[in-house]
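Aim 2 progress update. The chain analyzed this quarter is reproduced below.
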Amino acid sequence: MITLALAQMLYFFCLQAPFTGGEDGIQAVPRGVLFGLIDLRNTLAMYFTVLAIFLAGFLLIYRTIHSPFGQVLKAIRENEPRALSLGYGADQYKLIAFVLSAALSGLAGGTKAIVFQLASLTDVHWTMSGEVVLMTLLGGLGTVFGPVAGAVIVIGLETYLAQLGAWVTVVQGTIFVLCVLAFRRGVVGELARFLRKPL
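Predicted structure tokens:
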């Protein structure tokens, strides 16, 4: 609830602040040249730059999960009092995980602003946080590839259902409810469980 309250507070701050452009957002975000080498005004260069940023972020997450730091985070998630009794500072580990998450979210937001050359109010609305959580639940909570699969599903649905107009939210909600009921572990989690099942 505190996270949602802070998100709503940030939304109203961005709505009122003069440098954010209010309801119009920040428009015509320049692409420029990255490191003086890569011309981001070229569509192909922009595509490969975004792909490289995504892969670097994904590899960072993968490496973090499979590092001793990631194992401590798993231990804290499963049994925090036991992790504390073993001498791990749970609060410090949680803070580092939160900072890492915020840094990657900021990188994703900055990349999106450069790609679309627009930073709109929808990017800071609390529904954006809900959409990210929905992507994770749909793809598979606790899996590495789950959020990626969830993002592909959600964005794909938004793209292909846009022609339905006002009914798009109702159809999306129905699909999400059915998916959550049918795939308790998410799409990737259920697929992994099916592949592990003996034939």
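Strands lie at 26-27, 33-34, 38-39, 118-119. The mean pLDDT is 83. These observations will guide the mutagenesis experiments scheduled for the next reporting period.
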